[in-house]
Amino acid sequence: MKSKLAALCVLLVIIYITTGYAGAEEAKAVQQEVPFYFNWTFWQWTVSLSALFISITPYIVRYIKGTSISLDVINKIVIHHTIGNPNINLFLIIQNNGGLPVKITKIALEICKDEKTYTIPAQSYFPEASENKQAILAPFRLLPEQGWTHGVYFYPDFTREDDIKFRKMRGELKANIQSKPIVMATSQPATQTPLTEADPQYLAPVMDFFNNHFMWSMGEYTGTVTIHAEPNKATIMKKFRFHLYDTESTELRNYSADYKYGLGVYDFNLEKHPSIFVTTSELK
Predict the structure, then answer these.
(1) Measuring CA to CA, which residue among 202, 194, 201 is closest to residue 170?
(2) Segment (H or E) for 70
(3) 184 lies in the same domain as 130
(4) Distance CA 272, CA 267 (A)
(5) Helix (H, G, I), strand (E, B) or coil at 221
(6) Are 227 and 107 in contact (CB under 8 A)?
(7) pTM to 2 decimals?
(8) Would you state the pLDDT for residue 129?
(9) Are residues 80 and 155 in the same domain?
(10) What is the count of structural domains for the chain?
(11) At a CB cut-off of 8 Å and minimum separation 6, what does 222 contact?
(12) Where does the pLDDT of residue 90 fall: very low under 50, low under 70, confident under 90, or very high at 90 and above?
């Protein structure tokens, strides 16, 4: 009985497989006779692949564009100094032209003259062009097609030794001047300009510091602005040149004549010690 039942089951399986195969062949034959544009499965695949292509296309384009930033330097450089230590303002336009975000890690400036190179880092920037308020320049990100347009303030950090010396001589000069009675100008009584002078022993270290740090002599200069970025291949630089004339160099140097009054040492007045605006030209 069991053997007959097993034989019957095997027969049913064979019939099922044979019938299913024949049905599949028949369906296949019928399907081959139907045009593809009447085939619902074809349109399902077409719509699915189209939706997939549309969704991933922006990402493909971004990766194809990669990382790329551009840099424009406005052709004016603003020059000043603090007891000889160089101060520079430049107006920069940075644009992310690539398809991926870019991180700007730092901005640096190199000034070269007579085979001497001065590396001057960017320390702060002006968030609003119409206001004279500065903000610390920290690393920042630029999204694709995003730009960054600001005035940037460059100046070198003092060494630890120079920083201690600067603070000491400035404090002593200020204390010496303020310990004396104020003498007012008599030639122009309306201005009432204080003329109290520091004693020579307090002025001497200030003048030595100025002479050791002053770099704005007459002549031709070249500058290189470097935008350091991550990834590193997005880093970009721009070169320019400018000429400082004798009158401009002399004006900057003559600011030291007021150090004996404390002006330019602890008391700063841009009307009396204005910055010098110099036109630059790009170097290819």
Answers:
(1) 202
(2) strand 69-82
(3) yes
(4) 11
(5) strand
(6) yes
(7) 0.74
(8) 74
(9) yes
(10) 3
(11) 111, 112, 113, 239, 240, 241, 283
(12) very high
